[in-house]
Amino acid sequence: MAFLQTFMRYASRKPPSGSTHSLKIDDAIFYVDWVVTSAVALGYSMVSATMQGKQIETATVVVALIVLVVGVAMIPPLVRDTCYDASGKIKGWGYVILLDVIGLIFLASSVVAGVKTYGG
Hints:
Blueprint: H1 2-12, H2 31-51, H3 58-83, H4 93-118
Helix pairs in contact: 2-3, 2-4, 3-4
């Protein structure tokens, strides 16, 4: 997914004068997409499982809710204050990697919760 997003950004923008490409460091930040994807997928799988009469363990629901609250409500202000400078630019590649790892953790936790719910 990340590769396809990067390709789409590359292919759909004209490069600025004197540059061979239009990509910027911010184009490598995928954590927002991954946290939102995990939140939507997790919510959908929980509702779908409930509608199918499947039992969902209380611990799974609690962990899912914690992940959603932390990912959607708590992480963005921390990212804004920690990873970006006063002009709104990311501070460096280390922060990009950190954010993407955080996004992958949220996505993986959503997958694990879905597997536990459906017994796969």
